[in-house]
């Protein structure tokens, strides 16, 4: 096996330790199919433009398709002596196609090849992540449907704030992932750009048709500038940012689940199939799945920072530093897909606990009493101050609070009790994006139409 395509330039071989250090064949394994796709399109373009003979092109195409078949069946092996995926494919083509193989690299460089391979990989990966996001959205909607009338406390600062429905909470999580979907779809516009024809950095003197290559690879357009195209990794940082955003949304959701399953909150129950126990405390039932998912946000942010740091201060055009970005991208894409898969399983196995408190008067509905007074003609701040003073003087006794409010506002105690009952409060929410039963039903209908038409 040859050591490297550039070896004739040098009088001494590359030091074996340095050779091993710079080898990227292991991580390039997942780029093989994209490299072959790029080669197939490139050869078809060379044939169309008359840069290689039809017989030579046909020989190259036959060899590439044979390698593709070998790869799909697990028979194609990469060799570290050949440094990277590009030279491994070229050498394999030469073995099959003979002298015609020497023409494969005409009018191209490893610089535009790797940029193309990564864009093809990023495009496929983006579609995979989109698919997993849609799966989790469907599961959130299913949770909402199963518990459409269940009322739970809504929190701010981890303190009870106002009553909401579980379906309203599920819809809130749905919306987070909907924004992630929008970001990914928009990112595809910048991912789906062809660098082919850029060659090393300055284009080529061969009469190529890089628009044809772009079309064959199903890119939307050709990169405008070869110098920029071979070094542009903005599409990777954007994808990693969106993955970080997804991870943060997952982490926040999982933090809620961890809190809501705790004895102090006791709002939801986790199925045994997604729970773990303790090696010493037999009574424990731990939400480890959601804790692990919560921690993955740190990895995602770290991966984004890693790539940004690699890119920081690089001179224009291709630099070998860019090689280090590949493994970070692959690692994060894998983790994002796995986290969404696991979260979908977890959400399906959450059971909400229905409580009697929703039919009892509660301080959590104090704002509704303020709003009622406003509707009776009192200025908001005056009503707020009145109710706030009653809360402060009640010693956390809800019935003392009711008596104080009745004395100050001249309202009947039974009316106050009704107004500050959580279920009644939710039932009377009428704003279109609020937690009222009707508003949530309509929002969930729109969400289902959105998801099932994707």
From TrEMBL:
Record keywords, A-Z: Amino-acid biosynthesis, Arginine biosynthesis, Cytoplasm, Lyase
One Pfam family from the record: ASL_C2
Subcellular location: Cytoplasm
Pathway the protein acts in: Amino-acid biosynthesis; L-arginine biosynthesis; L-arginine from L-ornithine and carbamoyl phosphate: step 3/3
CC terms in the record's Gene Ontology section: cytosol
Enzyme class: lyase
Membrane-spanning intervals of the chain: none
Catalytic activity: 2-(N(omega)-L-arginino)succinate = fumarate + L-arginine
Entry's Gene Ontology BP terms: L-arginine biosynthetic process via ornithine
The Argininosuccinate lyase C-terminal domain, residue ranges: 363-395
Enzyme Commission (EC) number: 4.3.2.1
InterPro entries: Arg_succ_lyase_C, Argininosuccinate_lyase, Fumarase/histidase_N, Fumarate_lyase_CS, Fumarate_lyase_fam, Fumarate_lyase_N, L-Aspartase-like
SUPFAM superfamilies the record matches: L-aspartase-like
Domain Fumarate lyase N-terminal: 9-302
GO MF annotation list: argininosuccinate lyase activity
Domain of life: Bacteria
Family: Belongs to the lyase 1 family. Argininosuccinate lyase subfamily.
PANTHER family: ARGININOSUCCINATE LYASE
NCBIfam families, A to Z: argH
UniProt name for this protein: Argininosuccinate lyase
Organism field: candidate division WOR-3 bacterium RBG_13_43_14
Organismal lineage: Bacteria, Bacteria division WOR-3
